[in-house]
Design a protein that fits this description.
The chain is mainly alpha-helical. It folds into 2 domains: about 200 residues, Serine Threonine Protein Phosphatase 5, Tetratricopeptide repeat, CATH 1.25.40; about 60 residues, Winged helix-like DNA-binding domain superfamily/Winged helix DNA-binding domain (Arc Repressor Mutant, subunit A), CATH 1.10.10. About 70% of the residues lie in helices and about 0% in strands. The protein has 17 helices and 2 strands. The protein has a two-stranded parallel ribbon with strand order 1-2.
């Protein structure tokens, strides 16, 4: 087994997004190593540092958005300290993660890397990435209409080079969810299919609205309000930690928050509606 951190980080950079899309817990668990994160942050290697966007996205998916955003911020700090001058292919996925998850200050800082690549690359993928970056920034902190236009442009550019996952991601940003869903289905991106179907079909097969919690989710929610960790919740409810992670993510989404602290602040002692069926 190869143990070189740079190789393992490059592997994780690819394996984690695939694991997320396919909901392959084994692949994600094998790829995640906190020592690799520390090694990347100590490095001056652009590719190693930018690999951390995959780790940050996984944190967010697991209901730990604050940790994920903080990791992106530390990664940008490391890139700036290294005086990085990235080449095409080094950092584009990282910058998209920042555009989607980071705060406005982080997005502004990451833009310098995007523009550096755009000024030195004639690759068609570069212009597609740039359009999607602009779209995500506008949609979050700028003009909605312009964001949709840039996302549509990005989708067309990714379609032209045959990158379906990026095309679907762009279509979703352009609010063309049904088209995005069909592409995710065609490449069997299970997580994204399930996520978009939940948005497009707000009432599930048991007749619950998408914000109504099941009995199990209510149990998890109450333990979250007590400050319990995923491990403690798993032990209390006799569940696997992976199952708890799914429940936590669902509870946060249904409560309309992105972190446990936000849940506590928002919900407090108010009990959400609950269905008797699980």
């Amino acid at each position: 087994m190869i143990e070189v951190p740079s190789f393992r980080l490059r592997l994780a950079r690819v394996a984690i997004p695939i694991g997320i899309a396919l909901e392959d817990d084994v692949l994600m668990r094998y790829s995640v190593d906190r020592e690799l994160v520390a090694a990347a942050l100590r490095s001056s290697n652009v590719s190693m540092i930018s690999s951390l966007s995959a780790f940050a996205e996984l944190e967010c998916i697991r209901g730990k958005r604050q940790q994920g955003v903080a990791l992106l911020k530390r990664s940008i700090d490391a890139l700036e300290a290294s005086k990085a001058r990235p080449h095409p292919g080094d950092i584009e996925e990282f910058t998209l993660s920042v555009a989607q998850l980071g705060d406005h200050g982080d997005i502004t800082r990451a833009r310098s890397f995007v523009e550096h690549i755009a000024s030195s690359s004639s690759a068609r993928a570069t212009s597609a990435y740039m359009a999607l970056y602009d779209a995500l920034e506008q949609l979050r902190f700028g003009e909605q209409r312009l964001g949709v236009l840039k996302a549509t442009e990005a989708a067309e550019r990714f379609h032209a080079i045959g990158w379906p996952l990026h095309e679907a991601r762009s279509l979703e940003a352009a609010e063309r969810l049904k088209q995005a869903l069909e592409i995710f289905k065609s490449v069997e991106a299970t997580y994204h299919v399930r996520r978009l179907e939940a948005i497009l079909n707000p009432v599930n097969r048991l007749g619950r609205s998408k914000t109504e919690m099941t009995a199990r989710e209510l149990e998890v929610r109450n333990l979250l309000l007590e400050g319990k960790s995923n491990k403690a919740i798993a032990e209390k409810l006799v569940l696997s930690e992976r199952t708890v992670e799914h429940h936590v993510a669902s509870v946060l989404a249904k409560a309309g928050v992105s972190s446990r602290s936000e849940l506590i602040a928002k919900v407090g002692g108010v009990s959400p509606s609950v269905s008797s069926a699980e």
